[in-house]
Amino acid sequence: MLQALSFGVSVAPTTDVEENRAVVAAAERAGLDLVGVQDHPYVADYLDAFALIGDLIARTSKISFFPDVANLPLRPAPMLARQASALSRLSGGRFHLGLGAGGYWDAIVKLGVARRSPKEALEAQEEAIALLRGLWQPSGHVTASGKWFSVDGLAAQPPAPGGVEIWVGAQGPRSLALTGRVADGWAAPIPSYLPYEKWPESNALIDRAAVEAGREPGDVRRIAQLVGTITDTPRSVELQGSAPIRTDAQGWVDLLTELAVQSFTGFVLWPEENAAEQARRFGEEVAPAVRDRLE
To answer: What is the mean pLDDT of the chain?
Structure first.
């Protein structure tokens, strides 16, 4: 499946609401396609990601949003289905669902949920994906009695036309295989979670799992998330470890073109500073040049 390129920016949902709004406004003016909003409900200095997305949806008209990534242990699948369908409808289809199985468990359990083992977390995630899609059907009622989530005759609530894609923030082999089997996309974690040099191997695991599940590997969208700064001076860049990428716009164009050859069709910048200006430069100086190069 041929996928259009998309470019976006990440937003940390700090309590500085005006700054978040300024970053998103700059991103939309610059022609960016996506905003990822980090989801860490246990951080006191962060706002609820879904509430902030709702506010930002109301202030924009073109750019799309996704939680990057939604914390499933703290957002039970039936309620998450309702939130996603509502945001999709309110935005006219400008919402997709980044989904994580759970990461910072010492912090997560402070909100009153039980700790899950890695195996249990992945089981819950796969069960959730199936239930989410069932609850987004055009009509009907859903009854499911799973190990992790249960509903009894719950009416389906479809999102806006075009639906909601589910992008998994996978890191380990089993999570990557799950992504290849059932997800619409892979939101590649930033390199502090998954070093850049592991991305090609991760893509291969997704490809293999997709084929084994009877899918085309290209049906699984790949979204590269990159921490760094667009500088005024060129510097050599190598995707190794977790060091931020710091180079000029042309260096970013070269890097993203290389990643596109590795199957990535989405690129989300995590700015180190001056996020609104970085979003502008990513949209005006980098994205158009990458599109021209790949055409």
So the answer is: 97
pTM: 0.97
* One-letter identity of residue 164: V
Please indicate, yes or no, if residue 141 is contained in any of the structural domains: yes
295 has pLDDT over 50: yes
Tokens of 247: 């180079």
Q: Can you say how many angstroms the Cα of residue 141 is from the centroid of all Cα atoms in its chain?
A: 28
Distance separating alpha carbons of residues 143 and 193, to the nearest angstrom: 36
Contact 22, 40 (CB under 8 A): no
Q: Which positions ≥6 away from 16 have C-beta within 8 Å?
A: none
Residues 10 and 276 sit within 8 Å (Cβ to Cβ): no
Q: Which tokens is 109 given?
A: 């359990």
Report pLDDT digits (tens) over 82-127: 999 999 999 999 999 999 999 899 999 999 999 999 999 999 999 9
- The boundaries of the domain holding residue 84 are 6-227+265-272
Those residues with Cβ within 8 angstroms of residue 206's Cβ, 6 or more apart along the chain or in another chain: 170, 176, 177, 179, 180, 186, 217, 220, 222
Is pLDDT of 2 > 50?
no
Return the CATH number at 166: 3.20.20.30
Domain count, the chain: 1
Buried b (16+ CB within 10 A) or exposed e, 98-121: bbbbbbeeeebeeeeeeebeeebb
Q: Which two tokens stand for residue 266?
A: 């989405």
